[in-house]
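Treating backbone geometry as a discrete language has practical consequences that deserve illustration. Part of our work consisted of pairing the sequence of a single chain with a tokenised description of its backbone. What the numbers capture is local backbone geometry rather than side-chain detail. For completeness, the protein is quoted in full, as a sequence line and a line of structure tokens:
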Amino acid sequence: MKKISFISLLLFLVLSISSTSQTYVDISNTSTCEQAYDITRFTIFGPTTAPIEMKSENSNSFDLAKHPTWYKFTIQNDGILLFDIVPQNPKDNYDFILYKGSPNFCEDYKNNRITPIRSNFSPQENIKGTTGLSYNGNNKDYEKGVMTNEGDVFYLALNNLYKDGKGHTIIFKQLKTSKLSGRVVNAKNDKPVKAEIKWRNLRNNNAYVTSQTEKKGYYEIDILINNQSNTFPKYELSAYSENYFPDFKLFSTSEANKLDNKQVHFKLDKVKKGYNNETLGVIYFKPNDIIITSESEYVKKKLLMFMKFNDKAEIILQGHTNGLFPSTDVDFELSTNRAEVIRKYLVDNKISTSRIGIEGMGSKNEIYPIPETEEEEGFNRRVEIKIVKF
């Protein structure tokens, strides 16, 4: 009886807390430039109460009865300013205007001496009703991000067109710029290699920048990093060169934020026809399964990069198992399925199936015909990559 009472009390407390946990920032006094709410310290601001209705006061304001909200903020780091304006009700239509601040901004604004640097008045087409600044600004709902310097001041004016609309949340996603350098050389003789260097955000493929090595193999690149500590994308720095296998290095957000003025070097392996086990690598699998080992993820991705960069390359994926010789039907089926898993991965990533052959070898080409350890058995469970054309 005591246990039932305790559970009931606990459930009541949880429901009570959850019912009152949603709080809204009051923006009822932010309807004019002079009342602009300073949101410098926020990376996520809101959700807010609904903006109040106002009438236009001058020719520089929105020209209809409206529900405006004014914000200002100061940039903390050099980089690219990005943000999302997220309405609580996706059917609301939020317009925005972004201005660069000045010493007498509000007075200049009223006297039509200020020109917006970004604005969006289009009805949102995405299902969440969001608008704002994105890196490319290549769709109707978003404008292109703004290059900023530490200390820059901006004013952001929002307008919800609807009388019975709700509030909003602003999510800042400023990109920091950092310099990165290094050298690309041949893995066998350390001679310089002419290569293309690429940097991208793996979470959304944005912030994609490229650079080229100079004659002696050195490169410099200005990379873009999300500098908010509460974000978690991964970043990829890769090096491509004709007749070489590409290579890449992955960085977490915290690691990427420590790369400014650091050096990252690449040693690239030259491609040859046939097997490239020592350079490209071999893809290994778990026992009696078509699941690859975590260590082989690197090889799988490196193969994909090679196939994308060398669009005339053709390969044969040769699957193998760890079993007694002669191979059984189960061995041949498993080895073929392992090769098929890698082919599917490549095809799913836009590599033509006509460029990929598969072959199930069963257990007839084991590295260790009589394995004595689990490690030796593991070397038998594999897919080898044979390059037939490049």
